[in-house]
Amino acid sequence: MLLPSCNFKYHLAPSSNRTSPKKAVTSDLTASYCSIVYLLVQTIITLVQVVFETEVFDAIRKRHSVRAYLPNEVPNEKIEKILEAARLAPSAGNAQPWHFVVVKDQQKRKILSKGRFAKFLVESPVVIVGCGDRKASPNWYVVDTTIAMQNMVLTATSEGLGTCWIGSFNENQVKKLLSIPDKFKVIALIAIGHRRKKLDLGAKALHFFRKKKNCRKLQA
């Protein structure tokens, strides 16, 4: 954001109509004040941008799959913020083909946990089911919904919550349980809640044998 420049010009007229020294000093002070305000505004904008970028990158670095949760409820305002992050995601042609079902009911979460790698959904106080509208965006509904769900994951992380992507589910069972119309495809589930400390040997072994890729500099 740039502010209009503040240049105050004055000149000395012939001796008979010469500007008084007092007015000249006032103009100098006004110009100096305007310059200081401009610099302060620019500094604040820069700091805000740096803080925002740092928060986003911190959330990316801190995010990891959490498979053990405390029974503590997730406040509704945090859930709304997470959903708002999904709503603001980009989509092809702005079709916004995503739809989300927030599941808190313990019995329904128990049914959702029947997947081979989804047992911990019984613990997570919130499960968000991400669905894509095939008719709204036939070619891009999967990509667009996934982008929106990643926005949710990063926002949840920045709010101090743990998350985990779930791809282990029976789509027909999920649709029947939550009365999801046929035109929607269930893309993924996300567990959300407060992390419970637990030694996850499976995850440690997986990360030991499948390490994160390293970035390499590309030469033109």
Q: What would your notes on this structure say?
A:
This protein is α+β, with helices and mostly antiparallel strands and 220 residues long. The chain has two domains: 15-62; 76-196, NADH Oxidase (3-Layer(aba) Sandwich), CATH 3.40.109. Helix content is 44%, strand content 13%. The chain is built from six helices and four strands. The chain has helices at 21-62, 76-87, 106-112, 141-158, 171-178, 201-209, and strands at residues 98-103, 126-133, 162-166, 184-193. It has a four-stranded antiparallel β-sheet, with helices on both faces. Helix 1 (21-62) crosses helix 4 and helix 2 (76-87) runs antiparallel to helix 4 (141-158). The longest helix is centred in the N-terminal third of the chain and has 42 residues, at 21-62. The chain is globular. The protein starts with 20 loop residues before the first helix and ends in an 11-residue tail after the last helix. The relative contact order is 0.14.
